[in-house]
Amino acid sequence: MTPYDVIVPAGGAARRLGGVDKPGLTVGETTLLDRVLAACTGARTTVVVGPARPTARDGVRWTREQPPGGGPVAAVAAGLDLVTADTVLLFAADLPFLDRRTVDRLVGALDAADPTVAATVLVDAGGREQPLAAAYRTAPLRAALAGLGDPDGLPLRRLVGGLSRLLVADTDNVAYDCDTWEDLEQAREREKS
Asked: Is residue 50 within 8 Å of residue 11, measured between CB atoms?
């Protein structure tokens, strides 16, 4: 498998959760961020973009988007400054069910894809692409970023929407994220079952 790096944007405002530190919330006994980081143990470099916080994973590199709170494209820009692998995975910090199997599926699918394919992206059961649960070829991602100008406040789809991508079915519902208190409670119930 191709060596890869990981970027985890973790500096959002969590407005639908009243501004709490969403990556620090727990499902089971583990924070959302630590659950994502545990799935990424095969990464050469793991970059978390957001305020530094305690984590169970050693070797994580921390950085901040500019300006802090500048959104997902600004977070990707900051993370790309610290990665060197030809493949980079982007994962939201609130994916409690992300697992190593899915990480390997995304990387393996990109490895097997035609070189013109720039990304492999999880697609949930509702048919929605999950650009923060995806593997990207680093060069096209950097080129797309360079074409945007100032990344502050831009939606992620502006960055990745023009990239050629292969869709990977999320057969295990690992792209489930925790945007609301109801989402978090459902994740906690799912963890118990």
From this structure: yes
CA distances from 16 to 19, 70, 183 (A): 7, 17, 11
Q: Is 90 exposed, middle or buried (0-12, 13-18, 19+ CB in 10 A)?
A: buried
Structure tokens, 165: 């991508």
Distance CA 133, CA 31 (A): 18
Query: Read out DSSP for 160-192?
Result: HTTS-EEEEE-TT-TT----SHHHHHHHHHHHH
Its pTM stands at 0.94
C-alpha 111/C-alpha 113 separation (Å) is 6
Mean pLDDT value of segment 52-72? 89
What does the alpha-carbon distance between residue 55 and residue 73 come to, in Å, rounded to a whole number? 24
- 26-48 per-position pLDDT tens digit: 999 999 999 999 999 999 999 99
Nearest to 140 by CA among 80, 75, 93: 80
- Cα separation of 126 and 116, whole Å? 27
- Please give the span between the terminal C-alpha atoms of the chain, in angstroms, as a whole number: 33
DSSP H helical ranges for the chain = 32-39, 72-80, 100-112, 138-146, 156-160, 181-192
Q: How many angstroms separate the CA atoms of 71 and 82, rounded?
A: 18
How wide is the angle at C-alpha 131 spanned by C-alphas 127 and 133, nearest 5°?
90
